Amino acid sequence: MSKYGVLVMGPAGAGKSTFCTALITHLHNNRRSCFYVNLDPAAEEFAHEPDLDIKDLISLEDVMEDMGLGPNGGLIYCFEFLLENLDFLTEALDPLTEEYLIIIDMPGQIELYTHIPILPALVKHLTRTGALDVNLCAAYLLEATFVVDRAKFFAGTLSAMSAMIMLEVPHVNILSKMDLVKGQIAKRDLKRFVDPDTTLLDDEPGAEEDDGQGVAGDPQTLMKGNSFKRLNRAVAGLIDSFSMVSYLRLEVQDEDSVGAILSYIDDAIQYHEAQEPKEPNDAIEVDEADD
Ligand SMILES: Nc1nc2c(ncn2[C@@H]2O[C@H](COP(=O)(O)OP(=O)(O)O)[C@@H](O)[C@H]2O)c(=O)[nH]1
Ligand SMILES: [Mg+2]
């Protein structure tokens, strides 16, 4: 039986859990079934209670206390433990039918996405090559306020691209928290972020050439220096040469915006192709069974 899911990723505070909440509300409003999996062992409060929570397998607090680890090391330990106990996921997800959208809410530690092969192993287990056969789409969130600092925006875009390359599943990139930049950035300029345009680095407002007067070793000076500019151009050039990243815009308070992003995810995993045509009465029966 095919399964369908979305893995919601991105840096801490990008709005992943808020997006999951909005997605679940939207699915409920449209009489669709979903199964919410929380894989952030540090997440405490939820607008919708998770159907499966990593905290029922392992507690970050216990790990930190027993192993003498900090929050980042503790999180890595939790994921290594999850990989050794994949039955925890398999048993919960295996009975789900193709009607369900499995929503997996990830933690934000950047280490997870960039330099350890934990996520590829998890994704492998979830998708065809593994036991579960989930048609999985990755959704990578970056918050729109990053457009204010172009070097930061390209650094964030590089991490989105590195997740795309590492995971090898259909992928949507999302600029979240669009409400925070509304009215602050012209539509024409925003387009250059949505399809990242490397010339953004050449015409950054307030960017002046290095006058060589700064204090050597001072971070503020370094961030204005020509070497930093060359580094950013190299990062942007790399992103440009792959030509893989473009963003969808998310206004999480606007249900149409959430619905539009869901359509991209549905298309990426071909959700609708697998659904049985339903008689109107069937739909009512399914809903009753859900309640
Ligand atoms: N203004 C605004 N704030 C948001 C939005 N999405 C999330 N937030 C806030 O950003 C913070 C982090 O959000 P959360 O969903 O927990 O991020 P996560 O760490 O990626 O799961 C919270 O205080 C949210 O209320 C948004 O679209 N607009
Ligand atoms: Mg979260």
UniProtKB/TrEMBL annotation:
Where does the record place Acidic residues bias? 200-212
Q: Which domain of life is it from?
A: Eukaryota
Q: How would you summarize the oligomeric state and partners of this protein?
A: Binds to RNA polymerase II (RNAPII).
Its name, as the record gives it, is GPN-loop GTPase 3
> Record keywords: GTP-binding included?
yes
Protein keywords: GTP-binding, Hydrolase, Nucleotide-binding
Name the segments for region: Disordered: 197-220
User: Which family would the database say this protein is a member of?
Assistant: Belongs to the GPN-loop GTPase family.
Record the organism: Amylocarpus encephaloides
Pfam families, A to Z: ATP_bind_1 (PF03029)
The molecular function GO annotations come to: GTP binding; GTPase activity
Task: Tell me, in a sentence or two, what this protein's role is.
Answer: Small GTPase required for proper nuclear import of RNA polymerase II and III (RNAPII and RNAPIII). May act at an RNAP assembly step prior to nuclear import.
